[in-house]
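Data card: per-record layout.
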Amino acid sequence: GIWVWQSSGSQYGTEYFAAYLVEKSLSIDNLFVFIIILAQFKVPSMFHQRVLMFGVLLALVLRGIFIAVGAAALAAFSFTFVIFGAILIWTGVGLFKHWDEDPSPEDNALVKAIRKRIAMTDNFDGSKTFTKVDGKRVATPMFLVMIAIASTDLLFALDSIPATFGVTQEPFLVFAANAFALLGLRALYFLLKGFLAKLIYLSLGLSVILMFIGLKLIMTYLHEVWYEVPKISIVASLSIIGLILVVSTVASLMKSKRDPSAVAHAGRITGSKEEE
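The structure for this 276-residue chain is written out next.
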């Protein structure tokens, strides 16, 4: 960030810091989901590092692809700002409604389909995704874990890339912010594993951030069409995002202190099957 500021000026430097802040906060929510997947599939702790590495590397590849597609779409069609903005507002509203719930890997359509079509064993065989039982090749729970992690990465990429483009339209800054936020994710997991449960209102804060960035993207397009529509500056964006994160973190710690039994949730965009 400091290098960008010094080499390219304060405008790009501020955009990078805003993009990194957005990506880091969304990455923490991504980490919540990883923890839920590891817990629900009862993955032995000795394999957590391997699973997280797979998740981070796959996320980098998927987000690199989405960044390239997103940058091309924004360059060719300015209306893409509205599409990205609508996606973020829809996601933010859904997360706002269900911020105190956790997604379930059992609701994952891809995981369900694989369970029906592929022979499975309930036992892990080290870190292998396939093994042999009575001479027959079957998938291990680790295979489902990798599928759940991959689909989670894909869904988070669909949210995070439009969100980052909401604060900067420079593809290099978008990818750099994504890369550095993700590369620190594995270390963050082992460092903050116990502390994450105390961030009770983080998902609620993220929902507001997504809605704000979605609105900013739509206003950016409208500003090009009608100059009278104000354009939210990058400094204002950085300040608002930072304020939301600070407020949600402080409120979370206060709630955790008052009620030690309260725990954080990753949140979900839609309700549970029972609610639906």
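Known properties of this structure: The beta strands are 130-133, 136-139. The mean pLDDT is 82.

See the next section for split statistics.
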